[in-house]
Amino acid sequence: MKNLIKNFFAVEEVSAHCDGPCGVYDPADARIKAEAVLSMTKKILAMAAPDPSDAAAVVAYNNTMSRYIAIKEDQAHGTKTDILVLWTDFFKPQHLEATPDLHDKIWKATKLCSACKTTVSLESAEALMAAVEDIHNIFWAAKGRDVAYYTAS
């Protein structure tokens, strides 16, 4: 089937050094997602369980809590993906020379993503934000640019 399609549609074979040959990378996506993790963690911790005899309140509470948890876990996974894409596609040996502990920083940041998925820890969520800020600073230094780190909230 593959050869049949090639016979009808002649295309030039191409290759790239990474998943996205555009060369456009930015840790901003990781920051936005990590910030959502922090926000959802705060919201979860602030929720008070309703009186168990109030069925409507229990349903509303469970609905809201499950939504917060789903968002937190999805955004933590997305943060991990964004960090790993920078790690595997952007960072090169010369970046490791400039930042010898880059392996460790990336590893710890992705472990924090996992911790944020599996727990409800304000400490982990705040540590993830700090790790993403560190990666932001390393990334922009590697590009020779001074780009301010900011948060949306």
Supply the key terms.
single chain, Four Helix Bundle (Hemerythrin (Met), subunit A)
Q: How would you summarize the topology of this molecule?
A:
Layout: H1 2-8, H2 28-46, H3 55-90, H4 93-98, H5 102-118, H6 122-142
Helix pairs in contact: 2-3, 2-6, 3-5, 5-6
Describe this structure in words.
The protein contains 6 helices and no strands. It has a single domain, classed as Nickel-containing superoxide dismutase (Four Helix Bundle (Hemerythrin (Met), subunit A)). Helix 2 runs antiparallel to helix 3 (55-90), helix 3 (55-90) runs antiparallel to helix 5 (102-118) and helix 5 (102-118) runs antiparallel to helix 6 (122-142). The protein has helices at residues 2-8, 28-46, 55-90, 93-98, 102-118, 122-142. The protein is extended and about 65 Å long. The longest helix has 36 residues, at 55-90. With 153 residues, it is mainly α.
N-to-C span:
51 Å
Strand content: under 5%
> How many β-strand stretches?
0
Number of helical segments?
A: 6
**Shape by Cα distribution:** extended
Radius of gyration: 21 Å
Count of spatially separate domains: 1
Quick rundown:
This protein is 69% helix and 0% strand. The chain is mainly α and 153 residues long.
